[in-house]
Automatic annotation (TrEMBL):
The keyword Hydrolase applies. It comes from the Bacteria. Its EC number is 3.5.1.118. Keywords: Glutamine amidotransferase, Hydrolase, Transferase. Residues 2-244 form the Glutamine amidotransferase type-2 domain. It is an enzyme of class 3 (hydrolase). InterPro entries: EgtC-like, Gamma-glu_amide_hydrolase, GATase_2_dom, Ntn_hydrolases_N. This is Glutamine amidotransferase. Gene3D superfamilies: Glutamine Phosphoribosylpyrophosphate, subunit 1, domain 1 (3.60.20.10). Coiled coil: none annotated. CDD domains: YafJ.
Length: 278
């Protein structure tokens, strides 16, 4: 369906994750190993915060395949960021257009999604009408992913991100089942306000799309003292990915089924995810 990654830690050039790893995100756009489709060529995007995180995120999005975009290649070698999201899209039926490329942004918040609301055309009207009227006019595209984002904002993403996503998923499931959809939602989601990052892995059928997080950097340095790159990033650096960027032993840990995680200053958090029915 799609592939995405999130980075939080010492400022690095975007190309360090988009292009340089063995199985970089650009490599995955052509040769995904764990995705439903091996090729993700229906648009791309990257959103990043500067060192001054009081400013809103910047976005660069395109509608072509990521592997062939020279502007992305150029920017990735010159933009350094302490927190960024990147996404490569494989459409589940909505058009390939600029407004349908992730990340989606509203104020300081960004959102990326891999998965689908099943039978979206059947339930779309009910879902969209539940969006706060003050937010409705900000919906620019036609994807289920963007509707999920604005439902989460409606349910309080800015105040309590975990509860807001739980309520969003519960509402989507209740709506879908009212229309006879057995398994209404499939998702891995990443969202951030520029300070913290939240990741969610969940599906109605209990067979969610893959998601991994990087091992604690202090432990990883002890495992691999020979890897020089690990010496130059902070102990709090964390990467969350749809699939691993390489085969370094011990570097990647799977996010369990029906789980959310929070990347933040100090100790990160991981806990079970349970939808809240309306």
């Amino acid at each position: 369906m799609c592939r995405w990654l999130a980075y939080s830690g010492s400022p690095i050039l975007l190309e360090e994750l988009l292009y340089k790893p063995q199985y970089s995100l650009i490599n995955q756009s052509l040769h995904s190993r764990l995705g439903v489709e091996p090729t993700n060529g229906d648009g791309f995007g990257v959103g990043w915060y500067g060192v001054d995180r009081t400013l809103d995120a910047a976005l660069f999005r395109g509608v072509g395949p990521a592997w062939g975009d020279p502007n992305l290649r150029e920017l990735a070698g010159h933009i350094s960021s302490p927190l960024f999201l990147a996404h490569i899209r494989a459409s589940t039926g909505t058009p390939v257009q600029h407004t349908n490329s992730h990340p989606f942004r509203h104020g300081r918040w960004m959102w990326v999604h891999n998965g689908a609301i099943r039978e979206f055309p059947k339930v779309k009207r009910d879902l969209v009408l539940a969006v706060d009227p003050a937010l409705y006019t900000s919906i620019a595209g036609s994807t289920d992913s963007e509707v999920m984002f604005y439902l989460a904002l409606t349910f309080g993403l800015r105040e309590n991100p975990v509860e807001a996503v739980q309520r969003m998923v519960g509402f989507v499931e209740a709506t879908g089942r009212r229309y006879g959809v057995e398994y209404p939602i499939q998702m891995s989601v990443g969202t951030t306000d520029g300070e913290k990052f939240w990741a969610f892995r969940y599906s109605s059928e209990g067979e969610s799309r893959s998601l991994f997080f990087s091992t604690d950097m202090t432990a990883l340095r002890q495992l691999h003292p020979e890897v020089e790159a690990l010496r130059h990033i902070s102990a709090e650096t964390r990467i969350v990915v749809s699939e691993p960027l390489g085969e370094l032993v011990g570097a990647w840990q799977p996010v369990p089924e029906a789980t959310y995680g929070v990347v933040q200053k100090g100790a990160d958090l991981m806990a079970p995810f349970q939808p809240i029915a309306p």
